[in-house]
Design brief:
By secondary structure, this protein is of the alpha+beta class. The protein is built from six helices and three strands; from the N terminus they run αβαααβααβ. The protein has a three-stranded mixed β-sheet with strand order 1-2-3, with helices on both faces. The two termini are 23 Å apart.
Length: 177
């Protein structure tokens, strides 16, 4: 929700309801997705329950990938437009922008909130390392690189991606809108 509000403010929209002065709530949609749901909730749901620790009763809903888009659509925007949930691992954010553009061009929405989000957890980090998909900080330091040089997605010397937690959101609409 915070990242979406930051994107709206950066777009000049300080109150999401300002949109409805110009367009109908059914013309505002979301294309927000991720590779997985909430990692801490997944961990608690499996590990803590198995260890018979107290776990909130509605934790399952926090593990769904579509929860963020639903919350943005319902709680922040109060919109009734399309909700499209991309799931494309590392390409989710790119896919969300494409989906949002297609939705606008098809006339199904005039404004789309698009983006991707990911969580970080011990379990995910361990499994990505097992696949040798992530770069190793010790190796990078040994090669004389500083932390801001560890992520080099377009170079031949890259040794995997850097994991992180975060969200990126865009507010998309046609020039006409």
């Amino acid at each position: 929700l915070v990242c979406t509000m930051e994107a709206l403010i950066a777009s000049g929209v300080t109150d999401p309801y300002e949109l409805y002065k110009h367009i109908h709530p059914s013309e505002v949609g979301t294309a927000l997705g991720s590779g997985m749901g909430g990692m801490r909730s997944l961990s608690a749901m499996f590990k803590d329950r198995r260890e018979e620790k107290d776990v909130q009763k509605d934790i399952l809903q926090e593990t769904f990938i579509n929860t963020v888009a639903g919350w943005v659509n319902l709680l922040l925007l109060s919109s009734s437009g399309p909700v499209k949930i991309p799931v494309g691992a590392c390409a989710t954010a790119l896919q969300s922008v494409e989906i949002a553009c297609d939705t606008i061009l098809s006339g199904k929405a005039k404004v789309m909130i698009a983006g991707g989000f990911d969580d970080f957890s011990e379990e995910g980090s361990y499994e990505f390392a097992n696949m040798k998909a992530t770069s190793n900080a010790e190796t990078e330091f040994a090669m004389g690189r500083e932390p801001n040089e560890f992520s080099r997605p377009m170079t031949t010397t890259r040794s995997g991606f850097m994991e992180s937690q975060g969200c990126g959101v865009h507010v998309l609409m046609s020039a006409k809108t």
